[in-house]
Design goal:
CATH architecture of one domain: 2-Layer Sandwich
Organism: Andreprevotia lacus DSM 23236
Catalytic activity: O-phospho-D-serine + H2O = D-serine + phosphate; O-phospho-L-serine + H2O = L-serine + phosphate
EC number: 3.1.3.3
Distance between the termini: 16 Å
Shape: elongated
Strand content: 15-25%
Pfam families: DUF4072, Hydrolase
Cofactor: Mg(2+)
Radius of gyration: 19 Å
CATH class of one domain: Alpha Beta
Helix content: 40-55%
Number of strands: 11
């Protein structure tokens, strides 16, 4: 048996009643003003529920009825456009007036049209000669957490979950976020800097889709967790292997390819919506 979690900024009572009928749920409970759980939902009615929710701009998720926030032992997150609202490399590029060129490459990579490693190498090369101080300006002036990020993290952390931030972005930003949000672990690419300026290169191996999946598996095994005790959240094509490796792989305001392939999807609400699955 499952519970059907429905989320959106505004949810009509009549829509909840129709979803209860479509899913054969026997009870509707409020989680909060933007989230409701329908108990006893039948997952074999998934297609009808999905169609209705898409037509009415509602987020939905079928969650095993006995799943609880205390069961989740690990939450793995992408950074850019997932934990935070910006693509850091695009904003760094804006400091030297080349944001459109870099953003086009970023978008193509996130849609899965370009190899991520190749795309990152090309984008970082365009930043050669930029003052290192530009990174701090991006963090201080432009970086914002995704709506609901702190609420989600606090809820999972208080229930005992470990957290992993793994990004195809840069350690300058993941390190600051790790401290700010008390994250268990953070992994990202290291920008090569010489005499206070970016060289246009990355030190060490690039964090790509395979690395994200590998690090999730390694941390899961280190903690002795089952697959269904892991949540992973991302928005780009390079997150898909990681999302499929988690018990709950969630596409967050993601690219169409990722929404289509991820097991779960959040489009109407913020990251608190992932926590609401388990409350």
């Amino acid at each position: 048996m499952h519970r059907l979690v429905i989320q959106a900024p505004n949810i009509a009572t009549q829509d909840l009643k129709q979803l209860a009928r479509l899913s054969d749920a026997y009870q509707i409970d409020a989680i909060n003003q933007q989230a409701f759980r329908l108990l006893g939902a039948h997952i074999d009615n998934d297609e009808a529920v999905a169609d209705f929710c898409e037509s009415n701009q509602l987020d939905y998720a079928f969650i095993p009825e006995d799943a609880n926030v205390h069961d989740i032992g690990l939450v793995v997150m992408d950074m850019d456009s997932t934990l935070i609202t910006i693509e850091c490399i695009d904003e760094i590029a804006d400091m030297v007036g080349i944001k459109p060129q870099v953003a086009d490459i970023t978008a193509a990579a996130m849609r899965g049209e370009l190899d991520f490693r190749e795309s990152l190498t090309r984008r970082v090369a365009l930043l050669a000669g930029l003052e290192e101080s530009a990174l701090a300006r991006v963090y201080d002036e432009r970086l914002q957490l995704m709506a609901g990020a702190e609420k989600m993290l606090k809820g999972f952390q208080q229930a005992g979950a470990k957290t992993l931030l793994i990004s195809g972005g840069f350690t300058f930003f993941t390190g600051k976020l790790q401290t700010r949000l008390s994250l268990s672990r953070a992994i990202a690419n290291v920008l090569e800097i010489d005499n206070g300026k970016l060289t246009g290169k990355v030190n060490g191996d690039i964090v790509d889709a395979e690395r994200k999946k590998t690090e999730l598996i390694a941390f899961r095994e280190e903690l002795g967790l089952r697959r269904d005790q892991v949540v992973a959240i991302g928005d780009g094509a390079n997150d898909l292997p990681m999302l499929h490796e988690a018990g709950y792989g969630v596409a967050c305001h993601a690219k169409p390819k990722v929404k289509a392939e991820a097991p779960y999807s959040i489009n109407q609400v913020g990251l608190e919506g992932v926590l609401n699955y388990f409350l």
